Amino acid sequence: MKPPEPFIDAHHHFWDLGRNPYPWLQDPEPIPFRYGDYSKLKRNYLPADLARDTEGFALAKTVHIEAEWERANPVDETRWLSGLAAATGRPSACVAHAALDGADVEDVLAQQAAFALVRGIRHKPVTAHAHADARRGLPGSMDDERWRRGYAMLARHGLSFDLQAPWWNLDQASDLARDFPGTQMIVNHTGLPSDRSPEGLAAWRAALEQLALRPNVALKISGLGQCGQAWKEDANVPVIRDAIAIFGAGRCMFASNFPVDSLVAGYETLLSGFLAAIADRPDAERRQLLHDNAQRIYRL
User: Fold this and answer.
1) Which of 137, 155, 243, 288 is the most exposed, having the fewest neighbouring CB atoms within 10 Å of its CB?
2) Mean pLDDT for the chain?
């Protein structure tokens, strides 16, 4: 199934492992990963690869999200991406990295914001591995005053913030969005609804409902794969529909998380599943979800 109009991929990654440093992809010891074995990602993924994976689809623009480049020099990733975009036309924009609780955060943010390609920042805060372990006030979390001082600097540079956190830590995100209403927050990967039990999904929905009360928060529909399982519409279309119902068609957007989500599905499977989830919506809302929201929120 192909989209009836151009769409924007609001979350993808590029990497060149022969030229650039990505410890999680290059070190011998793998890191804990929510999809399990990720050895198939240890290959270059560049604009030509994305073009191959989206052949036949009307991919209009793309947003690159920082790919955990070696953390000592995050500006180098943005510099490399800017050259890639100049040479190939991809990505259309990027979300860069800066350690918000780092001693050099003010300087790093200024350098990142100076690139025309940059729209926002992603810095994964400290979160819990499971709902039962969720605690407030931990160092490096969204409650941490030092981390929040870095977050407060985003507004002066006109930068948005991409948040990757599981739903059981989204109460912190709600407080953060309330306290910094001038900063656009974009939640990654649908709030990570990994527990698909009725109780787990009910708790995920409740967390999203609280966060959706903040008008400066948007949601990317992505990252819905489950460890050891192929991506199936019957498992994921209801989750997509719930997420859109909670946040509204004006604040959600399609994203592939490629090539990471290639571990669980082909690009066509992800896009077709999203299209199936929004098939009964009016054309204007479909355009918002596929294209216009990402265009507006990432200022494309």
Assistant:
1) 137
2) 96
Residue type for position 105: V
* Amino acid sitting at position 83: G
Residue with tokens 């890191």: 31
- Residue 16 near residue 44 (C-beta atoms within 8 A): yes
Contact 147, 171 (CB under 8 A): no
Residue 52: how many other CB atoms lie within 10 Å? 9
d(CA 188, CA 184): 13
Strand locations in the chain, DSSP E? 7-12, 59-65, 93-97, 118-122, 160-163, 185-187, 217-221, 252-254
Please name the CATH architecture into which domain 7-297 falls.
Answer: Alpha-Beta Barrel (3.20)
The residue extents of the domains of the chain are: 7-297
> Cα angle at 118 between 79 and 216, to 5 degrees?
155
178-192 confidence digits (pLDDT tens): 999 999 999 999 999
CA distance 150 to 52: 38
Q: In what helix (H) or strand (E) does residue 79 lie, and over which residues does it extend?
A: helix 74-88
